Amino acid sequence: MQYGAAAAEQAWTAYMPMPAMAAAAETAAERVERVASESAVVVFSVSSCCMCHAVKRLFCGLGVSPAVHELDLDPCGRDIERALSHLVGGGAAPVVPVVFIGGKLVGAMDRVMAAHINGSLVPLLKEAGALWL
Amino acid sequence: MVQGEESSWRMAASTHHERAIPLNQALAYGVQAHASASVAATPPASFLDFQPAAAAAAYFGELEEALIHGAANAAGVVDPGMIRGGDVHTKSAATAGYLAARPPTLEIFPSWPTRQQQQLHSGNSQSVGSTTDSSSAQNTMPQMELVSPASIRASSEQQQQPQPGQEVMMVTTDDYSYKPGLAAASPSFQQHQLQQQPLHGGGDHDKRKLGSTRKEGKLVDAKTERRLAQNREAARKSRLRKKAYVQNLETSRVRLQQIEQELQRARSQGLLLGGCSAAGDTSSGAAVFDMEYARWLDDDSKRLTELRGGLQAHLLDTNLGLIVEECMQHYDELFQLKASLARSDVFHLLTGTWATPAERCFLWMGGFRPSDLLKILIQQLDPLTEQQMLGIYNLQQSSEQAEEALGQGLQQLHQSLADTVAAGTLNNDGPGVPNYMSLMAIALDKLANLESFYQQADNLRQQTLHQLHRILTTRQAARCFLSIGEYYRRLRALSNLWSSRPCESFIGTESVSPPGTELQTMHHQPQQNQYSGF
């Protein structure tokens, strides 16, 4: 049975190319970490969220092209959102946008703004290789 | 003495302007006389208050009004003793006293009709010094009324001829002697001529263009003159009434504002106690915020005074640094206040109802725009080291970028909200549209995002202030906070001036007090209506 189940599962994963199925074994938090380290700048957002739009515009204005993960287009979006709210502190109702730079968590919009104002955002971006000037 | 006075009087008569000077001297003389006579009356003050500066007609008009005030003030302070004495000093005092004693309504300018002049001419040698008759005031009244038409006519002519004037002057001097009560004043009559005590028979003469000038050789109808005089007096009275009414309005308005503020505070406190019903247009949270904000402003002004004192006293950096730290914490308190209100009533903050109109002009997402404030401060903060300049420049640039990003996000929110509200057909009214309630629910969700945008904007403002504090030295930071405080205080003062500026057209050149009272109310109001753009 196990074999059959595993085979079925393998066949299933082979059939379904979605990485979400293959990553069913990893937790949402691990998923977040994995995704975050895939690019220099990663933004978890929701496509209809205007604050996410603002943070995207901020990075584009700086000359950075972040890798955006729209959680509403991700089947595991709910879990990821939950994991993110754990990471960020989960106070505000909308968790997104959450920004990772160089694999490290920066935080929600207020953290990003504070980092930009006190001048720590740009060096971070340069360090991560997202900016070259 | 009479001759000399005549000549001086004539000089005064030549031009309006010149007339003012001897008048001033005469007034001063009169004041001295008062002082010497040690009469504690207000007329001297009233004389001085109304030193003429305008054209002769307006000047005399104002003098009349002033004298009326003076007379009203000094009513009942008639001191017969003032009239006593043979020297000029006492006589001028007597004149002034008489002026003070005159009832205000008698504004008729007694002039000297020709026939009476001729009569008076004969009585030239009459006692100039006998002024012991304290009942002369009553006696002179009818005489003045008699002569007033002539003098009024003369004054209305507004044509002074030194020659006839001189003649008239002499006559009037004599005329004075006829009035026992005013006889003492006759030598000083010429000095006081231009003082133009309307109550004073002789004074009116001179006031009216140096005595009763009249058309050469023409006798003016006494009735006409009296009518004109009465008209003039009625006009004067109505002007005074109007002035009083306007002043009343101004004070009432200020009082109304105060009462409204108190009412709002009381209402909010009542809401806190759970007693009264909710306030009309402001929510309970907003009312509480307004109250707290007013208190914050009071504290702010105190801290600014502390800062100013610390800077001027050249305190040590450690001590000054403590004050600056307190200022920073004070601002943090305000951001805290705003954040707590944003959860319940963000629109009160976004629409800026807590701010004064001038501050509202510059409102950006419910507060000041950081890059604008930095632009202002950069000019105030010289000299800066190169590193500081670089730091501030970077700060300005990053705040601009952040503002731009937030603005774009807000723009998308607006667009999305508009699309949601306009979804479906707009031809039908609300309930008729299918999915109306779901439409409203979606719109409500989107509207709730405004709160997060406001929070981010406030966060940006707070971070900018903190970063500025980090870049600057203690003294520079002190000057920076002082500049910010003063800038917003000026905006508040500007709003007060704007709201109390005169819109009425009739408040023109007539009365002098309204602008003064407005300035006074403006000074009082900053303590009450302190709303800043933070």
From TrEMBL, chain A:
NCBIfam families, A to Z = GlrX-like_plant
Tell me the keywords, alphabetical order.
Cytoplasm, Disulfide bond, Electron transport, Redox-active center, Transport
Which family does the similarity line name?
A: Belongs to the glutaredoxin family. CC-type subfamily.
The record's listing under InterPro entries reads: GlrX-like_pln_2 (IPR011905), Glutaredoxin (IPR002109), Thioredoxin-like_sf (IPR036249)
Q: What is the lineage of its organism?
A: Eukaryota, Viridiplantae, Streptophyta, Embryophyta, Tracheophyta
Glutaredoxin domain: from which residue to which, for each copy?
A: 41-106
- Whose protein is this, by species? Leersia perrieri
Q: Which Gene3D superfamilies match?
A: Glutaredoxin (3.40.30.10)
* Full protein name: Glutaredoxin domain-containing protein
- Compartments in which it is found: Cytoplasm
| Cited function | Has a glutathione-disulfide oxidoreductase activity in the presence of NADPH and glutathione reductase. Reduces low molecular weight disulfides and proteins.
Q: Which domain of life is it from?
A: Eukaryota
CC per GO annotation: cytoplasm
From TrEMBL, chain B:
Where does the BZIP domain start and stop, copy by copy?
Answer: 221-265
Keyword flag Nucleus:
yes
Gene Ontology cellular-component terms for this entry are:
nucleus
Q: Which residues form the DOG1 domain?
A: 286-501
Q: Which GO terms describe its molecular function?
A: DNA-binding transcription factor activity; sequence-specific DNA binding
Q: Where is this region: Disordered?
A: 113-139, 179-222, 509-534
* Biased composition range(s): Basic and acidic residues: 202-222
Write out the annotated subcellular location.
Answer: Nucleus
Taxonomically, the superkingdom here is Eukaryota
What are the Polar residues biased-composition ranges? 113-124
Family annotation (InterPro entries)? bZIP, bZIP_sf, TGA_domain
- One GO BP annotation here? DNA-templated transcription
**Chief location:** nucleus
The UniProt keywords, alphabetically, are: Coiled coil, DNA-binding, Nucleus, Plant defense, Transcription, Transcription regulation
Protein family: Belongs to the bZIP family.
Recorded protein name is DOG1 domain-containing protein
Organism per entry: Leersia perrieri
